[in-house]
Batch of 2 targets.
Target 1
Amino acid sequence: MNTIPVWDTSSLYQGFSDPRYRADQAALTKISRKILKELKRFPKDRKSQKAVLAHILPWFDKAAALAEQLGSYTYMLYSVNTRDEDALREMNANEELRLPLQDAEVRFRDAWASSGITTAQLLKAYPELEAYRLALEEDRILARHQLSPDQENLAADLARSGADAWSRLHAALSSTLSVVWDPKKNQRKTVTELRQLAYHPDRSIRRRAFDLEKGAWQSAETAFAAALNGVKGHSVTLNRRREWTSPLELSALQARLSSRALVTLIGVMEESLPLFRRYLKAKARYLGLPVLGFHDLFAPVGKDEKAFGWDEAKGTVVKSFEAFSPRLGAFAALAFDKNWIHARPLDGKVGGAYCTSLPLSQEPRVLSNFDGTFGELKTLAHELGHAWHFWLLRDRSHVYHDYPMTLAETASIFAETLVTEATLATANPEAALFILEQSLQDSTQVIVDILCRFRFEKAVFDRRADAELTPRELNDLMVEAQRATYGDGLNPQELHPWMWAVKGHYYHHDLAFYNYPYAFGQLFALALYGRFRAQGPAFVPVYEWILGQTGVQTADDLAASAGFDLGTPEFWQQGIAVIEGQIVEFERRTHGS
Ligand SMILES: [Zn+2]
């Protein structure tokens, strides 16, 4: 059987009218009300305060698990059929059901901070709450930067017609923006379709698409700039009122990363730039160009000759995972056998891929759009890596699952690397060159382009604090960031000044600096992979232990207890060394061309 599968949802709920689904919705409402009620009559004496805090924390966990289970299930149904109106209605309904819980979180922080009880005192009285230590300390910090519950409530309400409205404008404009591609046939292409042509082997087509794409963004730049100024202005105002020294301070707290580690990470990324420029130059030589333009970054190199059948993809994933650890291999085999994967492309199904968790059912699910290419095989491995991370924690309470973005990509990138390396080892020369270069394209995005976005966003926040920015100023900042990062790896005359209009993350007030955690994830996972190569199977238990702790320790502490120091460049350089090995290999294979 080589049919690409769809997932089995029968072990979750039998649709939205399933009494168990309705019961879980009712349970979420009930428990949120119970928490709110307790917080509204928060006692005055310390002993009773501790007792209330102690029984409320597991309630929060239960509520979060219910909310995630309901949210995952409805989004699963919606994402395989975006015309499913019932799923859309249920998604909205579940969002409404979560509102009291958000209110409760604000009130909890307020009560916890004003109680004056220290984390140590609470944990001494209730040692069983140890897993909440980090969350409690973070709540203390967040409480210091929190306005009164009424003001927070107003800010959240206003965001819906303020910052969120600007995000929606960006999304609506950028998904419909189009230009004439073929005047004779009166054929138009959207900017998304034009950007897809960056992967075309014919340079004149890539170039034409690139020029038209830039023109399209330019035609709406006034609206995009207004939206960006609106979103960033919202963040600047609220951050000031909440007394954060910079948006980066809040972002690092959410990433559970010390500023020492962040500075070291950025420093190592900066230092690695010449290495990436070497790769870009080797790619230019291979393509017969004096230097690459922005529109050559995704040009294919080598040949993706191999079309994987589903069974072959399954075999490759299971075997590559098994070579790392029999437990990981057995888990992948279970995910395939139990039909936890929806891989068949369907009309009306969302693009891309994701992994989602159903904590009450203790099962994960993976969605992808499998087309037999190596890229899709790698995506499958990536998502199964996320699923494995969940699987290791499936019977632990929700607090263990609440890991920051920095640590959330460890298992996925690690899994993806296992499959890439295994496929490389057996591929023929042209296919191996293709796989190798794909991997370098990705790393260049995650290190060089991410650093570019980080610099740009930092500059925008700094400038926006004083005044609104014009489209021209945004273009200048973007080009400056691209020059500083890509350097002589790209032609300075062929950069992309409107990238600030392209990336949706800049337009979400709650996703400030949604960039460096990717670089963290990539280098952290590669550094761990480097350790595995050096230590072999002895590293497996250490690796599993690390994944088990991602929700309850800061990135720095977790690394330290596994014997790594995130504040030293040497740690991050282990990840860069894996990429360097691939660049040397790429140079060797393309030498003489
Ligand atoms: Zn991922």
Note: Residues 382, 386, 409, 412 surround zinc ion (CB under 6 Å).
Target 2
Amino acid sequence: METSALDFLKEILETPSPSGYEQPVQNVVRRYVADFADEVSTDTHGNVIAAKNPAGPLRVMLAGHCDQIGLIVQHIDENGFLYTSAIGGWDPQQLVGQRLTVWTAGGPVVGVIARKPIHLLTDEERKQVPKLKDLWLDIGATDKEDAASVVRIGDPVTLQLGFQPMRNGLANAPAMDDKTGLWIVVEALRRAAAADLKCALYAVSTVQEEIGLRGARTSAHSVDPHVGIAVDVTHATDCPTINKNQEGDITLGGGPVIYRGPNNNPIVVERLIQTADQRKMSYQLGAVGRATPTDANALQVTRSGVPTALVSVPNRYMHSAVETISLDDIDRTADLLAEFALALNGDEDFTP
Ligand SMILES: [Zn+2]
């Protein structure tokens, strides 16, 4: 992976983007793609759409959602503690003991979420699972007035952001879901743009996936693609307590996961598999027998239907402070998508 590409990954991971508050990360994306895209636009929903060869006969849309789960400030109490509600799907246990950041108009304000120390918990309390409504965010304010002088109701909150490399090419950060997918679609565009591309290739940094696949719906309508590929994370099943019989055998470092099932057009899927086989790229197969909770769902039923595929990055500990991925996996996924696009002549028919 080139240094500039790795730097781009770190920058998007360190830039906040709770659903609906994606503007900071979209600024980073716009600046980065300007070097190799022929056209860059932002729609009124906030999606950033970067295109190479937009006049090409066959439009291929790659979608990676730039939004991340977060919290939103709901109430400031008399003592200056903040109460929040969720943006996206949280396990509140993942929040206890975390450092967080409130993204205010005046800049980032750090805070913590904890709970009573173990010494003070009753036997009953020790057995209880914390609920978000009972957790407060402590920014060190002296009282309500002090807190309200920096924080406004509706300000977004994220976990403390940051990228941490680990052994064997792994790395952890909050929001690997789906900054890795965003990175892959942008990187696939960059790699394909450097070669002889015959199709029109769109990399879309979609918004508001975590609250209902909303940006994929609006952006796919305007791009009107002939093929759509969503890139998201999926659960790696190679750590304790996950049942492979039910969840499949998905390994970190095993390569991109190509999904099969009703949310995937069989011809697009076979072409992806063929592309990987011909170039001797490792990949894994995943199966979902329903509409997936990803941008692929919205893409597939846009307008009169779009031949769609879902390609995923194995991720351990999804929706936590320590989402863990393999850098090799994201590198290979970007290659797979670039090669898929480069192999298209423009006269393909994906009607199943
Ligand atoms: Zn996601």
Note: Residues 65, 177-178, 209, 232-233 surround zinc ion (CB under 6 Å).
